[in-house]
Amino acid sequence: MKPWWEVLGIPRGSERAAIRRAYAGKLKTTNPEDDPKGFMALREAYEAALRWVEYDYGWDEEGDEVETADVEDAPPDEHPERVPAIVEVPPEPVMTEDEGGDLNFTPLPPEAPVAPPPPDPAALARDADAAELDQLKATLEAGLRGPWFKDRVGLVAAFEALMAAPALMEIDRRDRIEHWLASLIADTIPRSDAILKQAMAAFGWEGEGNHPPAVWQIRTRLDEWRLIAGFQGGGHPLNAGWRALTRGSVPGWRRRIGALRPGVVPQVRELFDLAQYDLPGIAHSFEPRAADWWRVYLERPHFGFSEIVLLMLGALGAVLFALSGATSALRIGGAIAAGAVGIGLALLHWRVVAPMHWRRAHAGEDVVPGFGWRFGLWLLAAAAFIGAPMTPWLAGGAILLAVASAIAILLLDAGERDGGEVPWKRTVGLGILGALGAAGFLAMTAAEQVALLAFVASCGLIGISARTAIGQLIASRPILIATVATVLLLLGAVLRGDWGPAGSSLLPWGVAGGTGLLLMSALRTRDPQGRAGAVADLIGWGLWIILVFAAVLSAPDTKREALAPPIQVVPTSPMSALEAREPGFRLVRTGNPELYAQVKAIRDAIADGTRAHAEGARAIDALVNAAYRARLPRAPASLIAAEMDIRLAQLREWQDKDPRSCSGEDRGRTAAPLSPALQRRHYGHALRVAASMPAPASAAEKGREIPAGDLLRSAANGDAAAARRLEDAMEGSDPTAKCAARIAILEALVARSDADIAETMRPALIARAASKSSTN
């Protein structure tokens, strides 16, 4: 057994205060549950040290402790000394005889009082420890319950002092303190948040075990902490509502404006529901003035985001009619009608629809029966917009069906929380989409323009009122139903868009895209953070991209300018207009002045009416092509490399549409037309080549000519058998195989440096230019 000073780690002659400090320090690292033997040894050393301080006994001259138990249990000596025992006999009273012969007893003097035994120093130490513990408990409780509350630093200090008390080394007392502290922390939430984590770590409350009942309330508070940290993050779906409930010094008018933001009202309502039913502790974080204001605000419906969206839809329709109407009557009448409808619907929703839905929601009513029929009629109208030709009569019937069914859905099926969740980005996206599709919208007939705007308005009505109802309608297989329906709508738009003239493709694409976005919005309401929400986001982004491309490609083709009078086609400065449309002519002006002068002469002739526009355009194209063929063989390496890239793109487009043109066979016949984008790219490249200067001779030294065998091996990735197959395909008669082989070889070529590409292709380009010159 170690001496007490080695156990406590202090000098043997230490005073009582030093002993207590050493004991408290060792107490922090000795847990009776983890190391009971160490705890008992520490306690015995502490009590032995106190006895030493009190009586200074139990030590021999050498400084070693004499263990009395060993002395008492020692065996008797074989030859003990014969020492007479001294027995103290209490004195007896003295008896005397007086003169009369009577016996008298002389009493002894009273004995001295027996002194009480000296107090046990260990018991005194325990009493002092208990008193100290009670004082620390009172201090912590006063800091939490008041009336003299402590700040966070003070609470942490009081808790650490309590946990360092020597009295907590006793297991029973530590158990009692654990139950008392758990109840105190649970009763004083949220003020006890300052010591919640420290208490959980000190008693191991986060793990499984037989904890006091109040611990489960404390663990719930810890979950509330994590949830509150998530609310404060910018990406949480309830972030806007949380900020509205936790900001204090905000005037009422700013709160009312903030309530118009999309999603704020339903988020605040959801946070109130969480605080009332599931997580009551989050209410401690609400700013009292903000919470009171929002409770009053939610007691009845107000003018909100749904009404703003209706006004914006009406204003957007009015602007589009006023700027892009096919006739003057449509521009004036359509603008007035669209604005009036927007204002009327906003007032109707504010004064009639919103109060009705609010009463229904507070009464616990679900979606009104019959929504499937109403939504089905709207889908029939959408199918008519996509598939049927928009004659005035068909357009009028489809418009009436779509708008009537959308208004019926708005009146009967809207949920209280639908309107506030429409994000601003969709409204802004519609405005950008309208700007991109302005040219296509101008080319539409009056019936198509009215039909498209009416459908967009009906889609907006359903979007702000019945996404929850649509989500319930497709609840059996939401992802499958929404995705398949969207794909079918897009297929219909593809078929319908290919048949119509310029501008008319906006109608089927707009109807298909709008309906698909509505389905994806309903799908997102089913599971906003799970798989359904992810699928809806992915398909939604795809739909927006498709709509943007459709809006751009639906613009009228530039070839339609040939049908207009020359004075309208060519402005006052013919070459300025040509350079604005084809910036490559600016390079021709400085790089090939002769070609520029020839083109200018043709443009001037078109402008003064002495030359037809179509014939003049063909003459300009012929001049550009001749200069392009003549200068390409001597062009810089970068332009020759760009030429190979364009040829590769051309072969890829022909691979499916025209394999014979791709394979190089039947050169005399007319090849399949290329896409407008590739045609514009090739024409701009031809202008740059026509304006280029010949590459210097030193540039040819930087590259090397790649042999055909190297290209074949590179195209086959080093596989000799695959290289032989490519060579056989190039010499064979199968146009499909030959086309694939040409693409593979050209891909291997364009992967090289510009200098190598130019040095490899120059001989062929020079020979081709020479053959063209001799033919001409």
Automatic annotation (TrEMBL):
- Record-linked InterPro entries: DnaJ_domain (IPR001623)
Q: Which UniProt keywords apply?
A: Membrane, Transmembrane, Transmembrane helix
Q: TM segments?
A: 303-323, 329-350, 371-388, 394-415, 427-444, 450-470, 477-494, 506-523, 535-555
Protein name stated in the entry? J domain-containing protein
| Species this protein is from | Sphingomonas plantiphila
